[in-house]
UniProtKB/TrEMBL annotation:
Domain F-box residue range list: 8-48
Name of the featured protein: F-box domain-containing protein
Species of the source: Rhododendron simsii (Sims's rhododendron)
Amino acid sequence: MEETWSCIPNLLIWMIMERLQFIDSLRLSAVCKHWLNAFHNFPKEATTSYCNFPWLMITKSKDHRGSEREFSSPWTKTKFTVDLPEFAKTFVLNSKNGWVLLLTCSDCCEQVPRVFLLNPFTRVKLQMPRRPLLFGVRLSAISMLEGTPNCVALVITYRYIAIAHPGVDAWKIFTIPSALLYLRIVHIFFVDHYLYLMDIYGRAVLRFNTIDFTMTNLFMGKTYPFGKEEKDTYFLQCNKEIIRVSSNGLIPYGRFSSYGFTEAAWSFHKYSISKATWEALDDDEIRGKSWFLSNCGAKFSSVAEGTPVEKVHFLSKFKKKGCHCLFSCNLNSPGKDAHGYFGNLSRKNTVWINMG
């Protein structure tokens, strides 16, 4: 059999990646499936400290109608601009592993709004099916398989769940049980082939099986810890765990403070699916990570592992100033590092782009 470039052993690909910038490594992963697999199996000890840190995507034009986006890494001081027609007249719904889930603007487009997946680093686009019911998308989640989006879930007008795989012809639409509508679902997460819907109090109220399309009501009138809504609380995923990060001192929702952060007392909990309750994370589950939170845009939150930089980074939009700022708070001594931040980023739309 004739050997080709796609047959290069993983070890050789890893040796090449060690000499590349992260953006070039992402482009390398788009060569073929074998190289993509090598990219995702790149030994963690060989990666740079910031390779899994999210990027900031900044809209270059005054609004979402433009096609230019600036990608900025505050950690490596790297910036580059891409001009892709797919970005024009779109909003960011979600982000995972370098992929961005975009929704076309209904006010700007004559056609029915569409959802599609785009990797701005490799410029690969995955089309999702058309459907008139896509008006009123409230929540979204992306399931990954070997580094590629495998399934997309949408919550529409808080009444319907829409499920589809990239490339299929139509969305599968399911009605959320009427008994759960008053609970105000605000978060959805994929854990394996299950989709979990969580309410404003951090309770998993519905589990949806994306294989046999069955629903399980998890609420049943139960009570849980965190019985009240807390605005300075953020949800994310880490190693298939649903994580809740709370702070008593974080200035939330864009209210300006000259200090940026006050004395922050962080608390970390993971959701126990079997017990249907929240459990405090052990210290070793918190350390060795950087946590990324946001109160603007898609309100994306994530975590990066394998780094000695133990901090909480918070992307905030100040309402009075109309600008985005990125604060950095030391996890070990939040008060001491409370004033450290990356400063004014932009008055334009800014969101995290998840890389891990």
